[in-house]
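Quick review question:
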């Protein structure tokens, strides 16, 4: 059995979500789930693998490693907040970094996995930003900065991003969602497979008819916490059907 999650945005600021994730990971062997696919924005932000030593990050890496050692196959695609997760992190956590998009063929079905940010082509400011920060030279330049400076830049960008989103939500909500024509091209380019993505924080199952072919698009939720509980969702493939499951942890 396979399971898919996205947009946990893990950080020390969300201990409830962290506990929910740890409980979720620990529950996989009992549920006969042997592969986990994390579809990006696993961390709230990631500024380079030299930050693996940070105590919070080390705790998450240890939890992943424990699951890997129990035989869970761990896979991760980058999100827009943690695209700097690299091979040192992957090796320490015992997981495989996958390209975005990633076509996942199982015995009876074909999925295509993506974080989803590349599909939001109406958000031209973001796409310009994305093109810049996904470049190799730009990343090498950023990673050469001291860790503290990178953390300060990431914090400023996060603040700015939240402000921009609040502004755009008021004036043009659609900007923050996927573009329908981009999704159709994407499905065509990826063999009309069942698309699973996150990023938009709009959990839903959509039907698309592309070239007369029925395609499904499943959007994962981001994870949340308040004072009483942490919650999120996952998708589970049992070899026959894909189902959304709610995850919840009461907080003392
Ligand atoms: O993440 P979310 O859901 O809030 O919003 C995204 C888009 N925002 C981002 C920015 C991330 O939140 C912050 C990333 C921090 C970690 C990265 C570490 C290393 C990177 C350092 C880069 C300098 O991705 C948001 C979208 C939204 O999704 C919906 O799709 O709208 O897009 C933006 O906020 C981007 C702005 O539109 C454009 C900002 C341009 C800023 C340019 C500053 C360059 C500074 C360079 C410094 C070296
Ligand atoms: Mn995202």
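Suggested answer, residue by residue:
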């Amino acid at each position: 059995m396979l399971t898919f999650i996205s947009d946990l945005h893990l950080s020390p600021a969300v201990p409830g979500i962290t506990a929910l994730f740890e409980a979720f990971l620990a529950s996989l062997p009992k549920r006969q789930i042997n592969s986990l696919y994390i579809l990006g924005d696993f961390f709230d932000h990631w500024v380079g693998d030299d930050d693996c030593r940070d105590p919070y990050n080390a705790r998450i890496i240890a939890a992943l490693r424990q699951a890997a050692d129990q035989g869970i196959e761990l896979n991760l695609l980058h999100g827009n907040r943690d695209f700097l997760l690299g091979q040192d992190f992957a090796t320490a956590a015992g997981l495989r970094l996958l390209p975005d998009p990633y076509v996942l063929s199982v015995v009876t079905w074909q999925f295509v996995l993506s974080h989803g940010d590349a599909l939001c082509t109406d958000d031209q400011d973001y796409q310009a930003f994305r093109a810049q920060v996904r470049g190799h030279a730009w990343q090498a330049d950023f990673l050469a900065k001291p860790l503290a400076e990178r953390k300060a830049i990431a914090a400023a960008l996060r603040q700015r991003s939240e402000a921009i989103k609040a502004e755009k939500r008021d004036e043009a909500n659609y900007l923050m969602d996927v573009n329908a024509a981009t999704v159709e091209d994407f499905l065509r380019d990826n063999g009309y497979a069942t698309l699973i993505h996150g990023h938009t924080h709009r959990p839903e199952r959509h039907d698309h008819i592309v070239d007369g072919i029925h395609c499904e698009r499943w959007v994962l939720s981001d994870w949340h916490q308040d004072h009483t509980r942490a919650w999120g969702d996952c998708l589970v493939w049992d070899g026959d059907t894909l189902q959304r499951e709610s995850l919840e942890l009461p907080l003392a």
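Why it works: Residues 116 and 199 are 5 Å apart (CA to CA). The pocket of LP5 (ligand 1) is lined by residues 45, 47, 80-81, 84, 117, 120, 123, 125-126, 129, 133, 142, 153-154, 157-158, 161-162, 164-165, 176 (CB under 6 Å).
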